[in-house]
Amino acid sequence: MFPSDRRIRRALALGAVLCAASAAGACSAAPARPAAAHAEHAAHASPASPAAPATVEQIATALGCTAELGTQAEELRQGACETAQGTYRMTTFHAEEGLRSWLAEAEPYGGVYLVGDRWVVTAQSADALAPLRERLGGSVENGAEHTGH
Asked: How many angstroms from the chain centroid is the CA of residue 91?
């Protein structure tokens, strides 16, 4: 991997963290990749993981909304949508290691996370995530509390 590749990956990861931590507004850390390019890359990617995780679109459907896609990279895909219960940000990962790294970077910013098999959804509260947890499973994790600012 070239040094510039590492910087690009680090910038994408940081953009993902900032998107998840953001309380409002749409976010896109990188331009969307055309579906054909993504499919072409997937054809020669490393061996597939045993089972595919839920997609951003499937998570949004379970929430009852339509995802607006943001970041689409080899390592992760992100989207956001809004329902009467609030705003949700969804991120899916190619590998479990990517999910764990993302969480380690995001949790210090606070927030509530519903974490599943290579996917995570953020919302304003655990209550807002409860219906999704009933449909898709996962566990609720809390980021660091930020008080006094």
From this structure: 1
d(Cα 100, Cα 92) in Å, to the nearest integer?
12
Residue 34 has pLDDT above 80, yes or no: no
143-149: long-range contacts, CB 8 A cutoff, minimum separation 24: 143/106, 143/107, 143/108, 143/109, 143/110, 143/111, 143/112, 143/113, 144/107, 144/108, 144/109, 144/110, 145/110, 146/109, 146/110
Distance (Å, rounded) from C-alpha 112 to C-alpha 96? 19
Task: Summarize the confidence of residues 105-134 as an average pLDDT.
Answer: 93
What are the pLDDT digits (tens) for 61-102?
Answer: 999 999 999 989 989 999 999 999 899 999 999 999 999 999
Q: Which two tokens stand for residue 87?
A: 């705003």
Going by DSSP bridges, is the β-strand pair 76-83/86-93 parallel, antiparallel, or unpaired?
antiparallel
Contact present, 130 and 136 (Cβ < 8 Å): no
Higher pLDDT, 80 or 26: 80
Burial profile 135-148: b = 16 or more Cβ within 10 angstroms, e = fewer: ebebeeeebeeeee
